[in-house]
Fold each of these.
Amino acid sequence: MRKLLIFPMLLLSGCMGTFQTTQTVDPSIRTVTISAKHADAMRAALDYCNEKGFAVLSADKELGIINTDFKENNGLSKILLGNYRSKINFSFRQVSETMTRITLLISIEQQGAFGGWTQAVLGEDNVTEAYITVFKGIERYLPPKQVS
């Protein structure tokens, strides 16, 4: 239940400081280089999406992209916060045989009173936390490191 509330809780907790959308965050926060083969990094991201309930719209190993559909919040978070939805676009670039750079673009939208969706505006810390949460989630699915 706690994991279902991550994105919506991020929306509530950032009432002070700088506000931005998840798409305007500095690329250095949206990008990480991990110690993993390109295929392993993509598989880990797909596993993360499956665990979190993000439907994968497209995945192309050759281009190094994964795009998900929007996933709406549900349960208690929907009652407390209203309608929000989020999606993740992943880009993978092989840096070396065992290193991969992952760049994310997280979109979080809120539904207005008349049913239309608009980009959610969040506190800077909340936006950063959203990216960190996804990166940590991907890392959980990476294969164990092999000792030579």
Amino acid sequence: MSYIDPFWTYMESHLEILDVALSPIICEINTASTPIDEHLYDRSEYLFGAGFVAIQKYMLETCHLNKISVKKAINLKVQDERQVPFETAVWAAANYWKHDAEWWNVGFSKTEKSTDDEKPLPPNILRNLKILSAFGDFGHDYLC
């Protein structure tokens, strides 16, 4: 019995559109003397974030269609050299991008502790930031 994944083509076409939009920005980042001052990371962040959310939506739809627990699916044991399952990293990146405006006042660098005048980050945000911090420059430059 062959099975056709009804959601794959939606995600694939979405990512292809994002790739076309992202490619010239990546070229600009690679040639810019100060890409952060030119807001190139900000421009690319929206496209990366939309890509992570598209993948997250695909994962969610696939899990529901196949009656698979989302929690189990995003904690598969296939890991990269950072010991973070790929699915978990994608899920965390999508959640980060969707919700980062809710905690702009705290910021990525203040996840370890907060001062008296700052609100502590909620546990779900800390968990996502911990996952993303394992990805070094990508976590800091492209998602913050």
